[in-house]
Each structure stands twice: as C-alpha cells, then as structure tokens.
# Entry
Amino acid sequence: MKVVLFCGGYGMRMRNAPDDDVPKPMQMVGPRPLIWHVMRYYAHFGHTEFILCLGYGASHIKDYFLRYEEAASNDFVMRDGKVELLHSDIADWTISFIDTGLESAIGERLRRVRSHLGDDEYFLANYADVLTDAPLNDMIAEVVDSGAAASMMIVPPQSSFHCVDVSDTGKVKAITPVSQFPIWENGGFFVLTQQIFDHLPEGGDLVEDACGGLAAEGRLYAYKHDGFWKPADTFKERAELDARFARGDRPWMVWDGDSLTP
# Structure
C-alpha cells in the first residue's frame, strides 16, 4: 500500500528559537529524523511507496533524501578510499515529493496528492511525527475485515493533567488523572480507502470533515492500541524520544533485526 505522510505544517510547538526553520518531521531522534523513523516503521511491514505532502520547510526534507547518507545507520567497509556498504535501508523505497501548499489543511494536502494514489483501493496515512510499536498488519486486516471505508488508530489519553470534579459551591469532590478516564484519542495512524474523498471538501480537514462524515454513516473503524505510542509534537516530546534512543529504549524500532537490502 502507498503511504501518505503529512509533513508540510509549521510545527510551531517544536521550535527551539524564532529563527529555527527546521520542519518538525526533520527533528532528530538519534542519528535520523522523525520522518525516517516513521518511514522505516512502514517499510518493515512491506510498504515502501511514500508520498510526502510538502509545505513548510520542504527544502530541508528534499535535501535530506537527495543527499542521503546510508553510512549513518548501516555498517560499511572502507577499502582503498572507497566506501562499500554492507546494507542499505532505503534502496528499495519509492518517494514522491509533492508540494501541497504552505497553508493547506491536512485534508487539503490529501486532496492534492489524490492523483498519485492511482487506482489503489486502500492506502495508509500518517502525521509523520508519531512513533509506535503497533502491529500494522493487524491494523490493516481489521479494517479490511470490517468493511469500513476508513479507520484511525486510537490510543489511551496521554495527558499528565488531572480532571477536577467540583460542586456548584466550589467544593472539590474528586481528582482523577486524565489517563484513567475510559476515553480514547486519535493516534494519527490511518488506513483509508478512496471513499474518504467523498467527504473531503476543498480546504477541509481529514479528521473533522472526512472521518467525521464517515463516522456519522457508521463507516469509520477504530483500531485500539494500548502499547507504545509517543507523539513528537513539542520540543520536549522529541527530546524524550531522543533520550530513550540514546539509552537503548526504542520500542518503536520494530525493524531492529530486519535483514536490510545488501
């Protein structure tokens, strides 16, 4: 299946300083940027056709892959001044770099790459800033078996805040961590059919317009995942992932041990 990655937003909550122009998907986790980790996840399950919806910071993403350094994450031998790679991790990838506008909403970005999906019935989509260990094959199988037009992965609340139940007189009756409530939130991993475009108006939003419309018709499926899931929407969250990588705590790297392309 083709994989659509939304990587054109401003990512304001990720900025280190006002003059930081590196887009969120290019922020580093270990020796590779976020977007690479997301793409390696999909490639592990055999999905290596990527459509990048570019916007803000497009040149950073293009330059990274145009000048891709395989030796940063692969073993190699240097002989007679030449580098001989023992493995390659992106040699079998197909990547389409598509300008979808600087100010476009995610739904509009998806509309603008529709022609690149061809006649494929199913395709995958992701925000390019979330890492997980979810079993993608199971996720796909469940939505196909359900007959739904689309699915989103949902996860337990990640907030560390507390909800306060208070009376009209101001007396606090209970304090409960958000994570203990029986609710779910959008996990950012989508399995979609082209029926999604029937509910996606020009300039529309993928979740509120398209998924909301399908939900109203009973044609949206929710895949529940309570394993590892971590967004990198802020500088702090990205730094936490980078620290986990440094100490070898990398549950999202489901591809560890894969036999890469020789």
Summary: The first strand starts at residue 2 and ends at 7. The helical segments are 34-44, 58-66, 106-112, 136-146, 206-216, 235-246. Residues 56 and 248 are 32 Å apart (CA to CA). The mean pLDDT is 89.
